[in-house]
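Can't paste images in this forum, so I'm doing it all in text. The chain is below; anyone willing to post the predicted structure tokens underneath?
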Amino acid sequence: MDTNVFEEMAKKYDTEERQELAKIIVQEVKKELRNSETKSLIDYGSGTGLISLELSDLVDSILLIDSSKQMLEISKAKISQKGILNSQVLHSDFTEDTPELNADIVIMSLVLLLIPDTNKILTELFNILNKDGKLIIVDFDKNEQIDHPKVHNGFSHVELKNKLKEVGFKTAEIRTFHHGSRIFIKQDASLFISSSIK
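Text version of the structure:
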């Protein structure tokens, strides 16, 4: 397949709005990755790599994992176009089966709201983290305006913190960092970043 085909596919995913939001998220995640040059990172639900491929110079290695082969094809094309040497892709869905993996850092950006069983996915991610590993979650604050059969309407900080502690994380810090208009199913919403240590 030549690059143009990927470009056509990527255009549909990487809309201007998504790219803008990704830039804001990347800036926030970078703060969590200080002194991580020797660390391995997994981006779970990586999509087209909008977040993690912008972080490749801050860590030792990146594994982009997604349940969509098409998204990963776009990520692969970006990796080769940008000449990124420390990033690979893996097709997998942890809600069905988690492969034998481990990492120092796991990032999950705007993915948790798509997974029905929050506790199960947090447990899977906890299990693949190395000792003292860090889980970084970016997602929407709870939003009563949202009512969708397939999506959580965001998360309350207190509830999420409790879930993270239940799963076994020693610490969990959560803060809201961005308010945007029409960013969550066409509703105004705010984003939080959560950082938890195993």
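The radius of gyration is 16 Å. The first strand starts at residue 40 and ends at 44.
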